[in-house]
Structure formats: structure tokens, C-alpha cells
Amino acid sequence: MTPLLEAVQPRSAEPVPAAASLADPMLPRPFEVRRVQAETYDTYTLELAPADGRPLRFRPGQFNMLYLFGVGEVAISISGDPGRPSPLVHTLRAVGAVTRGLCALKKGDVVGVRGPFGNEWPLDEAAGHDVVLVAGGIGLAPLRPAIYRLLAERKRFGRVVLLSGSRSPQDILFRHELERWRSRFDLEVVVTVDYAAGDWNGLVGVVTTLIPRAGFDPTDTVALACGPEVMMRFATRELERRGVPTERIYLSMERNMKCAVGFCGHCQYGPHFICKDGPIFPYRAIAPIFEIREV
Amino acid sequence: MSLQPLSALLAQTPLFQGLPAEDLELIAGCASNVKFDAGDFLFREGGPADTFYLVRHGNVSIEFFAPGRGPVTIQTRGEGEVIGWSWLFPPYTWSHDARAFELTRALAFNADCLRGKCDKDPRLGYELMKRFGQIVHERLEATRLQLLDLYGGDRDPAPRGRTAAKR
Amino acid sequence: MREGSTMNVLERDALDLLFTSLKERGFTLVGPTVRERAIVYDEMFSAADLPWGWTDRQEAGTYRLERRADDAAFGFTVGPHAWKRFLFPPVQSLFRAERSGSKMALRPAGPFAARYALIGVRACELAAIDRQDKVFLGGTYVDPVYRQRREGAFVVAVQCGQAGGTCFCASMGTGPRAGSGFDLALTEVLEDGRHWFLVEEGSERGTEVVATLPVRAATEEEIAAAGRAVERAEAEMGRTLDTEGLRELFLRNYENRHWDRVAERCLGCGNCTMVCPTCFCATVDDVTDLAGQAAERVRRWDSCFTIDFSYLHGGSVRSSIAARYRQWITHKLATWTDQFGAPGCVGCGRCITWCPVGIDLTEETRALRALDHGAPAAPQGGAS
Predict the structure, then answer these.
(1) Chains with 3 or more CB pairs under 8 A to chain A
(2) pLDDT tens across A125-160, in order?
(3) Which chain A residues are within 8 Å of B41, Cβ to Cβ?
(4) Residue B47 maps to a domain
């Protein structure tokens, strides 16, 4: 029986610098679009430069609120290198009015940015251990800053394994980067797709089926997962079955978000606010509600 | 190839690990080493399921061929994984193609031989059934997850097909 | 009574001088007044705007104004309005954006300052303001709108002399007596043909205002008479809520079938969230001018009962009414405590009164308790 009553509060990492304006956290800063890169047919990477020249420093796993003039605001994870905060890099999928508009921006256009918000992937805790990253779909984007950090500080970690699942070969994000990473000897990268026609010469199957055979020592591993909730449920089960302790499994959660600072109430998930207590939670903190419907 | 006896090799595989030495000997008696080049078929849909494979190295795709659509890969299998369970169930016929998409080495098990041994020794039969049941269970779970089409997306991932995956 | 606080008596006819004094100090007065057959909180110009001689009768799904036998000014409980409408406005501009060419300028909408004197704040409502303080002022980020309005506000509390049919502040430990959190607190006393107010000071600002009023020190008998009035209120609470193990009760009953039964009655209208003095959820709207050169972002009260509230690319997380009611009540009575250290319910009873189908949070909690299988048994547990 899951101990429902011991809803552990997520470990709050050391306080993350509040780069959003403390005086008026609802006011965005203007950023200029430097580059728009199509990753797939519906996913784009934006490179943004701060109009005031002040780079937006962030920690891997954090997100920003991107404001499209007159249309609205969306919470989007930062997908760039935390070691190179300028330009600011976001990868987003065109699914709603705001994201469609953002993906259609051109060089020179201006967007509003509030952030960074939320907590970070527990990379300091992962130091000295193996690290397995399980990414599903666009979930690879919020994990990419963690990968950059892991590679930049590669000696601090044991084996590093990236398991990445996409819907089909044409949905694979950061394709060239994945290939580059795959050629490294200090990183195991396994890419799989759910559906493939004849010309795909790679793995087919859901990303969670990669967990049993991936090269990490389950008793000494920190697992970071990001993707659709159902995928994370399966991933968590496979990781546990393999022997990864629940307290070492971290998930990046998502809910509707309007303010990102705990005022609007939308992103509540049981006792947690995804925006300020998350988005990254140790699985143990959310286990009591993780499999309950419509929380 | 390996100088160690086949039974010792089997003991290291997820499928057979933990079985008593005499069982491993028995099973090894039905096994042989095989090699497939990229593009080789392990077996074809409709063919007799007289063998199953345990991949030692490489990757194999589980495919269906649809006219006008070409081969569609449902899943791939790699190192340490089992290919084929139709040999356990009448009419012992393969229901899909299996093709190596890179150089693949595997252990091939003679189904007649193994079925005979299982029939003679129900304890061994039950043990193998449990292990294959586990594999079937895991594959079914993975397939269900695939059916959910988790990641969404506007574009049909497999043109002219796979509409069943959408509601 | 507060230790060491000064108690004075203000006669009924001098009450308006309090209003005058606050106006002279630059406050906009807001308080209870009769409008559209309810007692609402609105701007006031003098003590004459108070609902003299009116009371309210409240039950689940029912609110009626009635004439009192006397002419008490505060002889009612709480109406559909809560003070949050002044501190956390229902509609609030957050920023403006102007575009010229590809450039965009973003300007804060502030200043948000307003100096309200809130007149007639009940104990449960002080607790509600305290709950919202924790939301908007208690974290890393502070809401500038709320902060400016809250810091500017002058609070005149009123000690309840009677309780309503849906009140249960005594159960929630928030009333009926207001102990702190006000600048001044009034207790209205109608006894032996006299009509007067006991004035209690809660802050230096309050003391300064009292210094401008024609008051005299209260006698012990007068203080006792005021105390009796509040005791009366405590004795006539229309509802009770057993708070024993409340948080745990809700946390272990996410999957209780009771939520489906509530959903058979709940309309999902969100009235309960609109009248609730602690509910703080908001959404935003983005609007542009016709030329598309100026845009504004506006925050509006939102309700967790709307289907869009939990929208996440492709659908709502809480698509069933059962899940939305469960979210609301579980937040109020359980998870709010995890988030802010106290329950989100102060026992004012508004959600019960203003529910069009009379769903009663105290009743639903009782029903859940009756269906609760309790905490998982300890592994070694024997019969006790």
C-alpha cells in the first residue's frame, strides 16, 4: 500500500536564483528572435537574445513563460546549454494558438520572456553515480540542458545513458546532436521510435522497453525522466523493476500554467504546485497520487 | 565462437538464467549457433514455427508486409531477447516476418526437440511456459503503450496506415 | 479580550464620525450595504449606508434578507461578497505591450495602490485575508497588486453577535471572536434600550483614529456585555465540521466513490469558488486594440470547476465534475495545509449558502467520513 499520508515534499534544491523580476513577476522582458530552426514538421527551436543584453541564466530543467504579443503566454522548458545562457534556447511544438504563433516567428521579431521558473534536475545529487535519462517525444527538450551539463562535467558522473523515444523517425528531435552524442565513448545513446515504415533502420518499440537492457547499474543510478505521463508511469515501473530505488527516480511533470509563480492555482497537483515545487519531482514525492486519475 | 559450452552460455541469458544445470544441458541439446547478415530473414510469415531464437548480438525487426505499403516494423529485438513464441502454440506457424537489420548472431532452438522434452518433463515445460508467458506479457504491455500513440502529432507517422492507433 | 488592549465605548449616533475620520485620512470606505436583496460589500459614504435593521437568513442554497426587530447595523453574518474583491480584484490589468515594427515595449500596469478602509470584517474573514496573504505575500514571489492593496488597507473588524445558518467558524478555529489582524474591532451591543459599540484597538493606526472619536473608556460591565454577545454567536453556529484527521481523510479518499455521488448533484457552476473568501485561482486574457499595435494582459478570477481550468494540450486533466469537486474540497480542507500551513476553509459557510443545489461541504465531509475505510491497518494490527 502506498503511504498516501506521507506525501513527501519534494526536495528543494538550493534556492534557484529568481531571475524573474521580484518586484513584478508578471511582467515579461522583451527578447529578440535570432533564429528559428525547424526540428521536425511541428517542432521548432527558437534562439532568443535579451533586448537589454542581460543574459537569462538558468539551471537545467527550468522553464520560462513565453509571451506572444496579444495572443498569450505558455510555459516552455529551456532546451539550451546552461553554460551558454545567451542566446536563450527554447524548443517547442506547435500545438496551440500561442505555440503555433511562436513557431511562426521570424528573425528580428520580439517575444516576452518571464523566468526562469521552477526547480532543476538533481545533477549534484547524481554526481558519483550512473545517470539514466529517459526521454519521450518533446520530453527530450527539457532534458537537453542536463545532458549538456553532464557532458561538460563528465568526470563527475558514472555511466551516462540516454534513452530517447519518439513517435516516428520524422518526429526525432535534435537528430544531428543525437548522432554526435552516439559517437561518443562516454555516453550511451539509444534511440527508438514507436512506428516506422520500411526505410527506418533503427529500433522500434516504446522507450520503456529499452530500460531493462540499458548499461547502468540500477543500484547506483539516478534516473531522470521526461515525457507524457503514461510513458513516465511505465518508465518508473521498469526502473523500479530493474532495481533503481524510488527516491532516485525524478520526473518532470506538466500541468496547465498561467502565472508560474504559485498565484494562479492552475498547476496544482495534489499538494504540489508544479510551477514552484516542480516541475521536477522525486518520484517518491508524487507516488501517492501518480496513478490516480484526474488529479 | 565461444569456447565455453552452450549450457554455460544459456545460463547467462535472461531467458534461461536460474535453471538447474540438467535443464540447461537438455535445452543446449536443442540449440545451435546461427548468424544472419543485414537483410536476412530469420523467418517469414506463414512459415512453420519450428525454431525460436535468442539474440546474442545485433538487432532484428518484427515486420509485417502490406501490399502498397511495404514492410512495417512493429518492434525490434536486440541482444538477450527472444524472437518467436509461435513454436509453443498450434498450428506452429509464424504470424509475422523477422529480419536482421544488421549483422546478427543468435542461438537457434529446435522447436520439435524442445517441445518433445517439455512434453516428457512437465516441470521443465511449466518453467519454460512461465518464462515465455512473462515475455508475452511484457510485449503485450509494450504494444498497448504503442497503441496509445503517446506523443501525439498531426502527421500520420506511417502514411496510409496505423489509423487503429487513433481514436 | 486582548491583553492590554484599550477598550472604549462609541455611541451608536457617533459611528458616522468613525467613517468621517477614515475618509479624512484618505481611505476609500468599503463595507456592507443592502443591494439587490442581499448584503454586499461596496463603497460607502457614511454610516447611513450600513444595513441598519436588516438581517439575513441562510441555509444550504438559500439566502433571504429580513427585517430585524431592532436597528442593529451589523446584525447579519456574511453575504455573497468577500473582501478579496478589493485586495485581489476580479479583473486586473497586469501589463501592457506596444508594438512598433518588430519592436515590442512592455509596461507594467501599476501602480496598483488603493487605500481601502474595510469596514465590518468578520473573524472568519480576517482568517481568509490571512490565508490569501500567505498565497500572495508568503513565497519567493510577491503579487504586486495584492501587496499594494493589502498594505494600504485599514481593517475595521466587527465581532459577530450572531451566527448564520451555514456558519461553522467555531469548528475551523477562526471565530467568532476576532483576536488580531485588525486596526479596530467593533462589538455592537443592543441591551437595556442602549445601542453602542465597544471599540478595541489592534494597531497604532487604530489608536490614532480612536483619538479622533468621542469615545469613553468602557466599564467592566460593558466589556462583559460585549463578550456575551460573541458567546451567543458561538452557541448558535448553524453547522459544524469535525476537523479531526481532516487532511488525512481527504488524502486517502481520492478514489472514494462518493465523489461520483456529489457529481450527480454538482452543476460545476463555480459559485462556491466565486463566493469563497480564500479561493485565489485566476486566469489571464490577452486583448489587443483593433489596430493590433497595443495589447494588454488581464487577470480574472477563475474557478477550478471550469473544464478549461486544467487544460493541457489536447484535453482537460479533470474532465469529470467528480474530479473537479474533489479537487476543490481536497484543496480547501487538506492540501491547502501542505501548501500554506493552514486549511483553505475558514468556516464562513458562503459555499453552502450560494450553491444553487445546496451542496454542503460539512455534509459532504461527514458523508465521506462515513464511507472512509480508515488508515491502512498496521501490518501487525490485532483487534483492539
Answers:
(1) B, C
(2) 999 999 999 999 999 999 999 999 999 999 999 999
(3) none
(4) yes
pLDDT exceeds 80 at position C1: no
| Residue C54 identity | W
CA C227/CA A114 separation, integer angstroms: 52
Classify residue B20: in a domain, yes or no: yes
The CATH number linked to B134 is 2.60.120.10
Domain range spanning residue B109? 6-150
Report the residue count for chain B: 167
Residue C56: alpha-carbon gap to chain centroid: 17
CA angle C286, C291, C293 (to 5 degrees): 60
3-state helix, strand, coil split of chain B in percent (to 5) is: 35, 30, 40
User: What is the domain partition of chain A in residue ranges?
Assistant: 29-117, 123-290
User: Are β-strands C28-35 and C116-121 bridged in parallel, bridged antiparallel, or unpaired?
Assistant: parallel
Question: Which of B75, B80, B157 minimises the CB distance to A167?
Answer: B157
Mean pLDDT, to the nearest integer, of B29-41? 95
The arrangement of secondary structure in A29-117, i.e. its CATH architecture, is: Beta Barrel (2.40)
Q: How far apart are CA B74 and CA A7, in angstroms?
A: 40
Are the C-beta atoms of A290 and A283 separated by less than 8 Å?
yes
What's CA C215's distance to the chain center, in Å? 30
Q: What is the ipTM of this complex?
A: 0.92
The Cα-based distances of A196 to A95, A171, A205, B157 in angstroms read 23, 11, 9, 7
Cβ pair C215, C198 in contact under 8 A: no
Q: Which helix (H) or strand (E) holds C59?
A: strand C54-59
Whether B166 is in a domain gets the answer no
Q: Do A295 and C323 touch (CB under 8 A)?
A: yes
Number of domains in chain B: 1
> Given CA atoms C348, C354, C358, C359 in this order, what sign does their dihedral have?
negative
Quick: pLDDT tens for A105-128.
Answer: 999 999 999 999 999 999 999 999
Integer Cα distance of A28 and A102 in angstroms: 15
Does A204 contact B61 at a Cβ distance shorter than 8 Å?
A: yes
> Which of B146, B151, B158 minimises the CB distance to A137?
B151
List residues in chain B touching A: CB distance below 8 A: 14, 59, 61-62, 69-76, 78-81, 101-102, 138, 141-142, 145-146, 148-155, 157-159, 162, 165
- For the domain covering A123-290, report its CATH number: 3.40.50.80
